[in-house]
Amino acid sequence: MNGQRIILALVFFIVFLDSLAKFIFEGFSLKTLLILLAVSGIVLFLWIFPSKKD
């Protein structure tokens, strides 16, 4: 596992925990859900298609 994937996993984990805490303590919010989905999509895209080295 290279450094880029470790950082992506860490970013996803932090955003997931933050979203989970907001859902638990503040209730359901569409904004929080959309941020979680957007970050998940970006992380998934970068995980599958990492930058290519020449």
Task: Write a structural description.
The chain crosses the membrane at residues 31-49. Keywords: Membrane, Transmembrane, Transmembrane helix. The protein is elongated, with a radius of gyration of 13 Å. The protein is built from 2 helices and no strands. Helix 1 packs antiparallel against helix 2 (30-48). The longest helix is centred in the N-terminal third of the chain and has 24 residues, at 3-26. The model has no long low-confidence stretch (mean pLDDT 91). The protein is mainly α and 54 residues long. 0% of the residues are buried.
Q: Keywords for this structure?
A:
54 residues; mainly alpha; 2 helices; 0% strand; elongated; transmembrane; transmembrane helix; membrane
Q: How many helical stretches? A: 2
Described by the principal axes of the CA atoms, the overall outline is elongated
The portion of residues assigned to helices is over 70%
Proportion of beta-strand residues:
under 5%
- Largest β-sheet summary: none
Parts with pLDDT < 50 across at least 5 consecutive residues: none
> What's the count of strands?
0
Radius of gyration (CA) equals: 13 Å
Element pattern in H and E: HH
Concise synopsis of the structure shown:
The protein has 54 residues and is mainly α. 80% of the residues lie in helices and 0% in strands. Helix 1 (3-26) runs antiparallel to helix 2.
Task: Note the topology.
Elements: H1 3-26, H2 30-48
